[in-house]
TrEMBL record:
Alphabetical list of Pfam families matching this protein: Lactonase
SUPFAM superfamilies: C-terminal (heme d1) domain of cytochrome cd1-nitrite reductase (SSF51004)
Family: Belongs to the cycloisomerase 2 family.
Domain of life: Bacteria
Species name: Pectinatus cerevisiiphilus
Protein name: 6-phosphogluconolactonase
One Gene Ontology MF term: 6-phosphogluconolactonase activity
Length: 320
């Protein structure tokens, strides 16, 4: 089956905005990405139903735009100083996290128009990197604060608690297990994987902490993304600098590293897993390539490169 994918890029002489490609989940093939929507600051892209949300800069303002499948701008909101580093669509709402501004913004879409619902200010340079959802709570990893801030959406986003980390950890991205009783998070600065289990009082207890790269390599390494397999048996992470993809088994309890291979390029900023679990698509920003890799669903191991296509300064990736 063919799926349409989109890639956000950093601004450069050879790239501008959002690129589109076609991915086939039976063969792992990818078409050459072509220019879809030209804009400054178009590094992030996500789906909002049939439409797309993209980051955007214009006239020294930054924020997001809602565009359709023909790249027509339906609405935009440029309320931030810098472009967000993360966007997602959840329960018909758009959430953005802004690393530089230290904010989380919440929008609803009313008749194809973006309407700001909440502006959550966490602090200048807090390093807000993601928004995660657990029941009526949102988890916001704050890289520069070395903590996850937890907010209660049912109580006007009041701060409900924090999960602290050691100074210099740099919590970045996380995922919950399908049953929402286990939580996994990667850190950018210390290059570690943290495994938490839900307790009877709804608190989260750290059960295991693993190094993703050797301590001697952490100076040049920066772990970026984390994904969980559809069968909930494996975790996948990417690490820039050392340019690694790491696979962890989680089916029998705490995570155990079972594979670590090259990302087949330089600077794997983001990646995703196909909906059938057979392929991993990774964007290597500095070597300017989108790469498709086959996964053995039984073992979780990445087996071989299926296809590679040029795309300059690729950062974010979405597939539907």
């Amino acid at each position: 089956m063919d799926y349409t994918g989109y890639i956000g890029t950093y601004d450069s002489p050879k790239s501008s905005g959002i690129y589109r490609f076609i991915f086939n989940d039976r063969t792992g093939s990818i078409s050459p990405p072509g220019s879809f929507y030209k804009t400054d600051g178009g590094k992030c892209v996500a789906f909002a139903g049939k439409n797309l949300i993209v980051t955007r800069e214009h006239n020294n303002k930054a924020g997001i735009a809602l565009i359709d499948e023909q790249a027509n701008v339906l609405s935009e909101s440029l309320l931030e100083k810098k472009t967000p580093c993360f966007i997602t669509f959840h329960n018909n709402m758009i959430y953005t996290a802004n690393y530089h501004d230290g904010t989380v913004l919440l929008y609803k879409i009313d008749n194809y128009k973006l309407q700001l619902i909440k502006h959550l200010s966490i602090g200048a340079n807090a390093g807000c990197h993601q928004v995660l959802f657990w029941h009526n709570l949102i988890f916001v990893p704050c890289l520069n604060l070395d903590c996850i801030n937890i907010y209660d959406t049912a109580k006007d986003f009041t701060l409900k608690g924090k999960i602290p980390f050691a100074k210099g950890t740099g919590p970045r991205h996380g995922v919950f297990s399908n049953d929402e009783k286990r939580f996994y998070l990667v850190s950018e600065l210390s290059n570690e994987l943290f495994y938490f289990e839900l307790q009877p009082d709804n608190s989260w207890k750290l059960k295991k902490q693993l190094s993703i790269v050797a301590k001697s390599a952490t100076v040049d390494s920066a772990t970026a993304a984390i994904r969980i397999s559809i069968n909930n048996h494996f975790l996948y992470t990417s690490t820039r600098g050392s340019n690694l993809l790491t696979v962890f088994s989680i089916s029998d309890g705490p995570p155990t590293c079972i594979q670590q291979i090259s990302s087949a390029g330089d600077h794997p900023r983001d990646f995703l897993l196909s909906s059938n679990g057979d392929y991993l698509l990774v964007v290597n920003r500095s070597s300017n390539e989108l790469i498709s890799m086959h996964i053995n669903r039984s073992t979780g191991l990445i087996e071989n490169i299926v296809a590679r296509r040029p795309v300059f300064e690729g950062v974010g990736i979405a597939l539907k």
